[in-house]
Design a protein that fits this description.
Helix content: 25-40%
Structural class: alpha+beta
Number of strands: 20
Distance between the termini: 50 Å
Strand content: 15-25%
CATH class of the largest domain: Alpha Beta
CATH architecture of the largest domain: 2-Layer Sandwich
Largest sheet: 7 strands, mixed
Shape: flat
Length: 711
């Protein structure tokens, strides 16, 4: 670890101009390349107090042993030089996109006497017409195979072509009519070129006119009773339509554009690119990168554009590039793209319409790619074992925490405060053990008190179950029988229909595999989403219950620091640590589960109405009643006999509905319908009710969920 002050240049020696800088380690290897509008101001940021640097930046400057720079004239030149050096040196601390390979294009070699259709990669050649890029070469071959029956253009190599011309026998494609066989003079060079140009027109999106022409020829052939020719034309039309379905129109104005989306977390980022040509999605690309440096979304977009267009020129750079965030500053990148294309390029964020909708699709693909990458990484047994060992070592545990429970608090401005508990065993999710909590001890927003309450309730239940069953010796496979308990499941409701107040001995207490059920199984590690205050609250709750054999830690989002009780400084795991990745994944899952429950509760509260609490009235019959009367207002004015007219509603249910609506009647003075006079004032709400939304009163004390759902 080098001291940055040992190689820090004097501020006066650094030019105040645009340029590119390189950090090198003690072996003179380039470990980071960056560009700056002002080298002096940018480099000064690296040589401040180490405590103020982001952990990843701190790691880079302490690994480096020297810094050097190159002055350029403009920011565009700096962008170009930065890209060249990143390609040349492959610095370890720069953003690296995996799957950095040349993507395939469908190419038509119009520069040859007999144009050929083929898959091509790499640099573009003059006189060759390109379509794409495509995600896979097989996707190109699939499309070409469909089109060859209509446009039988040559696809063979130069050697095969010359051999067929020498022997006078075409290849197999010539025999099955998927090649016009110019090699044996079945068509002239001019006729074959015309076929190739029609193929290019079709691939460029000019499909309607050609299809109509084929349909006219098919009808003419049928009228002339040339049914075999009509059948061939019919099959040609079907083949073209099938090829068109593979390239569905997504932008109606025949736009040429690339859409770039980024999904990221604190450690990794996934980039997805959709290539739209002629209004159709012609290809898709994707990368995943480790965020080795402290980088924003805008900076990730800039790196992606460098990666995408660094070696491309001409038509490979479209007229429009749509991104989720603009690089700062945007002008140099836009000028660089314009220089690569040779004409103006629009770099912007889509705001509305089809382009914004398509960008949302690309964003979903990026998010899915990141999730898939993390899932594949987590599924590796060796990686999981290493992660658990690293967590145990960092926290000073005697053994790897085979069961980890993580807790998170969620609310919306202090309303609908809930908590989640997720469980990971052997580094994998165990969703059947997930639990949800409603905060009951107080009202309002206080994450620390909420965390204390949740931990207390969970482990008080653990002690209760442990007391019922008695202590069992290590290594025993079973525990004595004891009552089961209702628990909350991700879908809601009580397991086995059991009530928390069920009498002892109501149910068995062991799973089929002999393990303790539900809250009776303790974790080796409790993780809370938060920093020192939340960790202290969780530890205090365990201490109050007399539990001292369960470790506690917290993961703070801002810098991914791991906090442990009674310590002023956090535990900083290495950025590449599998242990940090595991803790982050546990924390993110707890957050997802909590916020999903909180949104469900909020939506249910907002959707609640006076019919929700009518006993025996399910969702189907409730909808039937509302549909019959058109609104709750009309239903409220209906008589019991009129309510009975609804299919499936008997008189007893109708009376219950009328009574519920009477209790939930909106605040209003009573009116004598005969005289129109206002009678004596009535209460705003019936006893035991509170004012609901839209002037409707709803009963108080009614649980918003079935009994036993929340624990």
């Amino acid at each position: 670890m080098a001291d940055p002050s040992s190689y820090r240049p004097k501020p006066g020696d650094i030019p105040d101009t645009p340029g590119v800088y390189r950090f090198r380690d003690e072996h003179r290897r380039v470990i980071y390349v960056g560009k700056a509008k002002s080298l002096r101001q940018r480099l000064a940021n690296y040589f401040q107090d180490l405590a103020g640097l982001h952990p990843r930046t701190r790691s880079m400057v302490t690994t480096a042993a020297s810094v050097e720079w190159t002055v350029v004239s403009t920011e565009v030149e700096a962008l170009q030089l930065e890209y060249s050096w990143i390609k040349e040196y492959d610095p370890r601390f720069n953003v690296k996109y995996r799957d950095d390979k040349s993507y395939p294009y469908l190419a038509v070699t119009l520069n040859e006497e007999f144009p050929r259709v083929q898959v091509m990669r790499g640099h573009k050649k003059k006189g060759v017409r390109y379509f794409g890029p495509y995600a896979h070469a097989w996707a190109i071959r699939d499309t070409v195979d469909l089109l060859l029956r209509v446009f039988p253009v040559r696809t063979c190599s130069a050697g095969v072509f010359k051999n067929a011309a020498r022997t006078g026998r075409p290849c197999l494609l010539g025999y099955i009519d998927k090649c016009s066989a110019p090699c044996v003079d079945r068509v002239s060079a001019g006729e074959h070129r015309e076929l190739a140009e029609e193929f290019c027109d079709f691939m460029a999106g000019r499909t309607g006119t050609y299809l109509r022409r084929l349909e006219t020829r098919m009808r003419d052939a049928a009228e002339e009773m040339e049914y075999e020719r009509a059948a061939r034309l019919r099959d040609d039309i079907e083949a073209l339509k099938k090829a068109m379905e593979k390239n569905a129109v997504v932008l109606a104005d025949a736009t040429d554009a690339d859409l770039v989306a980024v999904a990221e977390d604190e450690l990794e980022a996934a980039v997805q690119i959709f290539h739209v040509r002629g209004g159709r999605v012609r290809g898709q690309r994707g990368w995943v990168t480790d965020k080795v440096e402290d980088v924003t979304t805008a900076a990730l977009v800039e790196h992606a554009l460098q990666q995408l267009y660094g070696e491309e020129k001409g038509d490979a750079v479209p007229k429009e590039v749509l991104v989720p965030a603009l690089p700062d500053p945007v002008e140099p990148v836009q000028q660089w793209l314009t220089g690569r294309r040779g004409s103006a390029v629009s770099l912007r964020i889509p705001q509305r319409g089809d382009k914004k909708a398509l960008m949302e699709t690309v964003q979903r693909n990026a998010q899915q790619a990141l999730v898939l990458h993390k899932t594949r990484r987590a599924s590796d047994l060796t990686t999981r074992s290493r992660a658990l060992e690293e967590v145990a070592e960092a926290l000073g545990l005697d053994s790897a925490p085979l069961r980890i429970e993580c807790y998170d608090i969620s609310h919306l401005q202090g309303d609908d405060v809930v908590a989640s508990m997720v469980v990971f065993e052997d580094g994998l999710q165990r969703k059947s053990e997930y639990r949800r909590f409603q905060i009951k001890g107080f009202e309002g927003q206080d994450d620390v008190r909420s965390m204390h309450e949740v931990i207390t309730r969970r482990f008080r239940r653990y002690l209760s179950e442990k007391e019922r069953t008695g202590e069992w010796a290590d290594g025993e496979d079973t525990v004595p029988a004891a009552p089961d308990a209702a628990i909350a499941t991700p879908g809601g409701g009580a397991v086995n229909g059991t009530d928390p107040a069920a009498p002892p001995g109501a149910n068995g207490f062991t799973e089929d595999d002999g393990r303790p059920k539900r809250f009776a199984y303790p974790p080796q590690l409790v993780v809370v989403d938060g920093g020192q205050p939340q960790v202290a609250a969780a530890r205090r709750a365990l201490d109050e219950l007399g539990i001292d054999d369960i470790a506690v830690c917290g993961l703070a989002k801002r810098l991914e620091e791991v906090w442990v009780p009674d310590e002023d400084d956090p535990v900083v795991l290495p950025r590449s640590s599998e242990g940090l990745y595991l803790l982050q994944r546990v924390r993110d899952e707890a957050h997802r589960f909590a916020i999903t429950y909180q949104r469900t509760k909020r939506a249910k509260r907002l959707r609640s109405g006076p019919l929700d609490d009518v006993p025996g009235l399910g969702e189907t019959r409730k909808q039937a009643v509302i549909k019959h009367f058109g609104s709750v207002k009309r239903l409220r004015s209906a008589t019991i006999d009129q309510i009975c007219e609804v299919p499936g509603i008997g008189r007893k249910t109708a009376e219950t509905i009328a009574a519920a609506l009477a209790l939930a009647a909106p605040a209003a003075p009573a009116v004598n319908t005969a005289t129109g006079e206002i009678m004596e004032d009535v209460d705003d709400a019936a006893p035991g009710t509170t004012a609901g939304s839209a002037g409707v009163s709803v009963p108080t004390g009614v649980p918003d969920e079935r009994r036993g759902q929340e624990r």
